[in-house]
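A favour, since you know our structure tokens better than I do. What I am after is a single protein written out in full by you. Could you add the entry underneath, on a fresh line?


***
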Amino acid sequence: MKKQTNNSIKQIIVVLFTLAVILVGGYFIIFAIIELIANPTDTIIVKEGTISQDETVTGYIIRDEVDVQGENYKNGMEQIIDEGQKVAKNEPIFRYYSQNEESVKIQIAELNEKIQVAMKENTQEGALTDTKLLDTQIEDKLKEINKLNSMQAVQESKRTLSNYVTKKAEIVGESSPKGSYLKDLINQRRELEKRLSENSEYIKSTRSGILSYKIDGLENILKTDDLTRYNKEFLESLNLKTNQIIATSTEQGKIVDNFNCYIAFTSNSKEAKEIEVGKKIKITLPSAKTVSAEVAHKIVENDEENTIIIKFIEGVEELLSYRKISFDVTWWSSSGYKVPNSAIITDNNLTYVIRTRSGYLNKILVKEGRKTDSYTVVSNYSASEIKELTIPEGTRTSIILYDEIIINPTQDMINSTK
């Protein structure tokens, strides 16, 4: 009985000891977690990176563009060249319908049905061999049209298809005893098509460039000949909506210079105040495409704001549907060793970081480059540059990739490196 009591006491002691270990361990775990939250990781590994100063702005698109319009614009028009395509000077780009075009087209459609019926009735065995290739070409062209998404390509394919059908009808007509009726139908259709062509007004490009049917009435207002008038007051007086798509005109088109486009925007940023005419920047268009631009003109609105007009040549066709857009400006970007600003310390107008290696702390002189609110790009001074600096003898002057540096170094840490 006594032996059982001793065993029970031992078991209780073991259980109590285990609980004590768990409690103590739990306390230290909780303490460690609290410490980690209160004092997060205080080092960072040096890596290559890029920083930039970006700004989202709203801009007005200014283009070198020329309206193209004929006399019969009220009749409606048919596009010969698609929206956004490049055209050469004097190239036919669209045509206006003739006054009686719809009724003539109905007559042509009726004749086409009669021609199809006449071909079936008059096809002879001998004609089948002669038209076999045309049948294949007609079938292939029909399949091709169903896959096209370009109006210009569809129209060209339809014209080719019509020529195939006419040629087949002529062959069938020549080989048939009753072919004169089929020939008469074909001649009637040709006369109607000729009438359509003669009565239509074809419009040609007056210059080379990009063709657009997006007309907003500002083509002769937002011109590139005088950039000085595009201040904030003038631009806002246009009362345009940002990113609104311009409607497609059924009366006219325009030719846009694809090597000459401008955007005017107003900004109160430090960079907008300091930028000079001729400086290069980057912009990101609504399509996410980044292109190079140059500051063409600058208007000082007041002590706070400046209107900047930039010029660029890439991506012009992507903006044909817009007059006012939201886009990103990258004033500058810089690459190198990217470190947090909180790792930078200054002593006698020189910049340092604190490196930790094998438990030892070293104060490393670095050359400070561009910086944002969060990061700075640093590099090493050249030997000739170091000679021009007044630094204590023995100062370390080389930071390398994958060095481990201290974030928010304390004064005790800094002092320990001296």
User: Anything to note?
Assistant: The longest helix spans residues 2-38. Residues 24-41 have pLDDT under 50 and may be disordered. Residues 26 and 32 are 10 Å apart (CA to CA). DSSP finds nine helices and 17 strands in the chain.
